[in-house]
Structures are given as structure tokens and as C-alpha cells.
Amino acid sequence: MNVRAKFRSDGAKSFEEVPGGLNRMSIRRFEKLVAQSGFEMTHCRYQCIRGMDLLGRLPFVRELFINHVVCELKC
Fold first, then answer.
1. For 8, 12, 13, 66, which has the most beta carbons within 10 A of its beta carbon?
2. CA–CA distance from 69 to each of 9, 10, 12, 44, 55 (Å)?
């Protein structure tokens, strides 16, 4: 948060205070919750920072580069 404050002036002092995001949900945890929910994932798109989509496909670093998930679920 200290580094973020150098680039953003919204006054957020914790992840929860950031408007519109930073809810500490990892991609791995999201996928696990969807799998346990009983819903069928019909569409899912992972968007990476600055168009670095290739890095979003690498298992060990994707948590660092994916910043937006669009997912459609069906019951």
C-alpha cells in the first residue's frame, strides 16, 4: 500500500478501501469457489495488466499479472 500511495491519491490505507477492487481474491481461490459452487462456467476471460496476456497463462506468475476476470456461470 505504501508503494501504491506514490501513484494513487485516493487516500486508501488498506486493500479493502480501494474503490472498485483489491479484495484479495486470488485466481486460484476464485476457481476453487466456482468449482465448489455447482455452477457451470460457460465463459471465462482473464485480463492481464498492460496486455501481458501471455504471462496470465503461466501457472506460477499468473496471480501477479491477472487483474480482471470476466466469467459467465450457468446453473
1. 66
2. 25, 23, 23, 7, 15
- The CA-atom distances, in angstroms, between 66 and each of 26, 37, 44, 46, 52 are 9, 22, 13, 6, 9
Q: Which amino acid is at 5?
A: A
C-alpha distances in Å from residue 14, one per residue of 3, 4, 10, 50: 12, 10, 11, 24
Q: Which pTM was predicted?
A: 0.67
d(CA 22, CA 20): 7
pLDDT of the residue at 53:
86
Given a cut of 80, whether residue 20 has pLDDT beyond it is: no
